[in-house]
Design a protein that fits this description.
The complex is a heterodimer of chains A (168) and B (180). Chain A has 168 residues and is mainly alpha-helical. Chain A contains six helices and three strands. The longest helix of chain B has 33 residues. Chain B is elongated. The chains are: A mainly alpha (168), B mainly alpha (180).
Chain lengths: 168, 180
């Protein structure tokens, strides 16, 4: 169970990249022009899907609401943290840079698509099963997002390793 | 990979059940383990930590600080991901995996008091009105809130991933020793 040098190196790079990717969230002036517009876009897309599902919702900034219920998509609910986590893990891994960049971009798209499902289901839970909302909002969906991020990372590492062996 | 996904889903469900049922008991232990950390900062060292349901209440023993309530359950649900990740490993009930899980579980649980301490500092630095202004400068208040948000958004899951990787990473094909 001893930690190999490669594993240790990976973990150090992963930790440093996590901190670097946290900067857009931490510095308000950067957050305003990067994360905030993205979060508003996410709320618009989620609102549009809810309307397609027959929900009478309006979107205003990061808020999706109807007469019965409303959600405000904030940092922590926009999956930027899961994307940062996944990108840090993929970019920290020893693989050709092209594979890392492609993996990080594709993985981020998958996570954000899943996050739209999260927002839509949380709205629906809040409206129809208010008693379950907090548990799903806090624990279930956040754990699922990071679980899926790790799965994407594992799938990517197995492919990247095969690719590296094939091209050796 | 499909079986890994199934095992992960079952593990996450088991983790949620564990976190939900043991939350209050664990909060009491967490309050006891976090208490010594309060001595690190004189501004809040007069606070006694008392677990109340899903929260930890900071009760002042002297008239030098206000009371605060910390949503401690929000600092502990990273165990759900930990259970899910170890359940996703091949042969999850093997001695090897269970031993690795016990080590990673201990690492994650021992780091949770640090998360609670960050949340307490952030609360006192930013949410206690005049008291916060009098006892924390702008830079300190920003530093504590950033430390708390970093821990809650990324750090607590990064710790789980790191602990899992450290003790189970060798089972992942990419990190198996290369054959010569």
């Amino acid at each position: 169970m001893a930690l190999s040098r490669r594993q240790a190196g990976f973990l150090v790079r992963f930790a440093i990249l996590c901190v670097i990717f946290y900067i857009p969230i931490a510095i308000p002036s950067i957050e305003r022009v990067t994360v905030a517009p993205f979060t508003r876009g996410l709320a618009s897309v989620s609102g549009a899907i809810l309307r397609m599902l027959g929900q009478d919702v309006v979107t205003s900034g990061t808020v999706i609401r109807s007469a019965e219920f409303g959600v405000d998509v904030k940092n922590g609910c926009n999956a930027v943290e899961a994307v940062a986590f996944l990108a840090a893990a993929i970019l920290a891994f020893e693989a050709p840079i092209r594979l890392r960049v492609i993996g990080a971009i594709l993985g981020s798209i998958i996570l954000e698509a899943l996050n739209v499902i999260r927002i839509v289901t949380l709205y629906l839970l809040g409206r129809y099963h208010r008693d379950l909302f907090d548990m799903f909002h806090l624990a279930v969906w956040q754990s699922v997002m990071f679980g899926v991020a790790v799965l994407i990372f594992l799938i990517w590492t197995s492919r990247a390793t095969k690719h590296a062996v094939a091209h050796r | 990979m499909l079986w890994r996904i199934v095992r992960l889903a079952i593990g996450l469900a088991a983790g949620i059940a564990l976190w939900w049922t043991c939350g209050d008991v664990w909060n009491r232990a967490l309050a006891v383990m976090t208490q010594p950390l309060m001595k690190l900062d004189r501004r809040i060292s007069a606070g006694d930590l008392v677990a109340v349901g899903h929260t930890i209440v900071v009760q002042p023993t002297r008239d030098t600080m206000p009371m605060a309530t910390i949503p401690a359950d929000q600092m502990t649900f990273n165990v759900i991901l930990l259970v899910g990740l170890f359940a996703s490993n091949r042969a999850p009930f093997s001695d090897r995996n269970m031993k690795a899980f016990a080590i990673a579980f201990a690492i994650v649980l021992l780091l949770q008091p640090i998360g609670v301490f960050l949340s307490i500092e952030s609360t006192y630095a930013n949410q206690q009105g005049v008291w916060s202004d009098q006892h924390y400068g702008d830079a300190a208040a920003r530093a504590w809130i950033n430390a708390e948000i970093f821990y809650r958004l990324i750090g607590m899951f990064g710790v789980v991933f790191g602990a899992w990787w450290m003790v189970a990473g060798e089972t992942i094909s990419a990190f198996r020793p290369r054959r010569k």
